[in-house]
Amino acid sequence: MNYSQEHQRYLRSIRTHRRAVRLSRVMVLVLFLGLWELGGRLGWFDVFILSSPGRVLSTIGRLWREGSLFLHVGVTLYETVLGFLLGTALGILLAVVLWWLPFWNEVMDPYLVVLNALPKIALGPVLIVWIGAGMGSIIVMAVLISLVVTTVTVLSGFTAAAAEKQLLMRTLGAGKGQTFLKVVLPAGVPHMMSALKISVGMSWVGVIVGEYLVSRSGLGYLIVYGGQVFQLDLVMASVVLLCLLAALMYGGVALLEKRFQK
Amino acid sequence: MEGALLSVENVSVYYHTPQGETEAVRDLSFSVGKGEFVAVVGPSGCGKTTVLSLIMGLHPPSLGEVRFPQGPCPMGYMLQRDNLLEWRTLEKNAVLGLEVRHKLNNATRERTVALLEKYGLGDFLFHYPSQLSGGMRQKAALIRTLALNPELLLLDEPFSALDYQTRLTLADEVFSIIHGEGKTALLVTHDIGEAVSMADRVLVFTDRPATLRREIALNFPKGMTPLQRREEPAFQEYFAAIWKELGR
Fold it and tell me: Edge-to-edge strands of the sheet including B63-67?
């Protein structure tokens, strides 16, 4: 295709811009890690307190050699994925039920508001007493924390599904079930996707806090343990691993969203 | 009127809100004969749409009766906006009503696709609504209504969301579709020109509560399209007459 000079200049400027952004992103990370490492070596701060990229790497290496890396990562990942899936599924189910029963939706509204505002973490000790100091409590915590926000977000999506489209379905002779399946549910997909994105982060919070309270393994456990025995290398290494895992999971959800938008 | 397809008899409608009671329609009577094209004109917010939902059975009359003297009459409703579902292709949108009523089979699907093709949407069957122009979308919405093969079409300001040029051309097309398919139509609009260019008869409503102020039969030569009617001297006279009624 033959473009005018001006258009070619325009296309080139877009490409340059994109490249600049990508390059700068990498630079920020390199600069951050570089200063962190350099500062430690030059004695600007105490690596015992702040750790350093090299020490984080060698800590991860040590965990790997000891064979506990996959145990801790696996446990946390398992709890998070399970909590996330259960929380999202139950949250969407609850939203469907409340959409279906407008009377109960109205009745439950203030309770939902309070539950949404309540820091679910406060329920931690209660869960431990009820369910026991184990993985069960951690998963329930993750479910609780992602469930309410999913219900609220998805329900608002359902109710926002253009009233006029629902009227259209009535004029075509559709009942409530068909209106839900053909209009409200598909129209709610974008809201469900944003709910997924929120609850992916939420379930990490639930799991890590749960592991702080009760656990013998998992990244949250490593962080607490490392803090108690003053091994900041271990804490930082766990945080770095968490960053990677959370980013990966978020990326997965974003990918799913893209597929659904098709 | 005997032989009427639809007869609205002394209907009143009240709307209830916690703030009070609103009389939307008062003692309204009119009828629509088979094959007729009737337009309802009135000031905005005068309860024209109420009359359509009344006929459609979406809202019961407080007093009076809506009758179908020739027996139950299959109806189609066309809304102001096309409300095509963004996640369905044009073809799937057009068969939505059939799907809802569990009448979707090869024969009805082919009939619907034939309608789309006949009225110039054949190349866009697998396009999504966002890829179509406003006029095409509204035409698709009409065909979605026609797919159920209704006897009576209720048109609720179907052109008002479109730009002026599209509105004129689409009015022409819809007019020929409705006549071509031999349908009866009741068009609600606040656009006097639209009513005069399309209808056989115009009902002028008063401000709320809506009652029938006057009925004006339009005598244009048969087979004249809305655009051609707009060229006629009679068009201006009818327009002026209705304008005067509305301003009274």
Answer: B20-33, B4-17, B63-67
